């Protein structure tokens, strides 16, 4: 958790610096504020659900796959969101901005609950009729704020449980690699941002959501 927090935090700060200027302030406030509040509740709920036992375990070559309640819940959510991006009748739907508060609550809660708030948030924001630049900048700003909320809650839960969160020496090269790769992705994405349409973003979001749903539901990750 500590290692992931470092990579997430560094990447979010870098994204804010690079694309934060494109953020839609109205969306950040109307979607981001409820998302932050719900992230605290989601992170706290994780502490409860994490104690539930695994549902199934099986071997996949040298790898052991484990299916848990958390993974199944998130897999179903990801599958539903992917259908909204890939199926034409659902893809044409546009969410009115009056639903931003509800969307923020849902994405923030499950972001705090599982850490997958980016996928859920993207699946909603891509429908509100904003430019690609505004979509990327708004995502970066809200992601940064939600991560602050969930990581702070995780830290409190770990401290209450008196669980060590120290990072061992052999983990630092992996953390550094993750940070460099994340920075490179932001730079490359920023370079080609003006060439990417929202339709492309929708398809990419849907395909990635399907992949995540399969990986979580099958217990591979």
Main beta sheet: strand number and arrangement?
Answer: 2 strands, antiparallel
Hey, roughly how much beta strand do the residues contain?
A: under 5%
Oligomer: single chain
Number of strands: 2
The largest beta-sheet arranges its strands as 1-2
Give a concise summary:
With 221 residues, the protein is mainly alpha-helical.
Topology of helices and strands:
Blueprint: H1 2-19, H2 25-49, E1 56-60, E2 63-67, H3 69-86, H4 88-91, H5 100-114, H6 117-125, H7 132-160, H8 172-191, H9 198-217
Key traits:
221 residues, mainly alpha, two-stranded antiparallel sheet, 9 helices, 2 strands, 71% helix, globular
Characterization of this structure:
The protein has 221 residues and is mainly alpha-helical. The chain has one domain. The protein has 9 helices and 2 strands. The chain has a two-stranded antiparallel ribbon. The two termini are 15 Å apart. The model has no long low-confidence stretch (mean pLDDT 79).
């Amino acid at each position: 958790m500590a290692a992931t927090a470092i990579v997430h935090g560094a990447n979010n700060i870098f994204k804010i610096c690079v694309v934060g200027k494109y953020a839609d302030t109205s969306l950040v406030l109307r979607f981001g504020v409820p998302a932050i509040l719900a992230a605290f509740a989601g992170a706290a709920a994780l502490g409860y659900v994490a104690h539930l036992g695994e549902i199934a375990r099986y071997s996949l070559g040298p790898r052991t796959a484990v299916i848990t309640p958390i993974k199944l819940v998130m897999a179903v959510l990801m599958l539903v969101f992917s259908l909204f991006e890939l199926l034409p009748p659902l893809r044409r739907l546009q969410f009115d901005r009056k639903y931003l508060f509800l969307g923020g609550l849902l994405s923030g809660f499950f972001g705090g609950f599982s850490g997958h708030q980016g996928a859920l948030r993207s699946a909603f924001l891509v429908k509100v009729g904003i430019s690609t630049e505004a979509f990327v900048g708004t995502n970066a700003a809200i992601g940064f704020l939600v991560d602050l909320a969930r990581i702070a809650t995780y830290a409190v839960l770990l401290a209450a449980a008196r669980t060590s969160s120290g990072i061992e020496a052999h983990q630092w090269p992996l953390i550094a690699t993750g940070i460099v790769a994340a920075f490179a992705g932001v730079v490359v994405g920023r370079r080609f941002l003006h060439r990417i349409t929202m339709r492309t973003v929708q398809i990419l979001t849907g395909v990635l959501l399907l992949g995540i749903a399969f990986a979580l539901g099958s217990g591979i990750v």
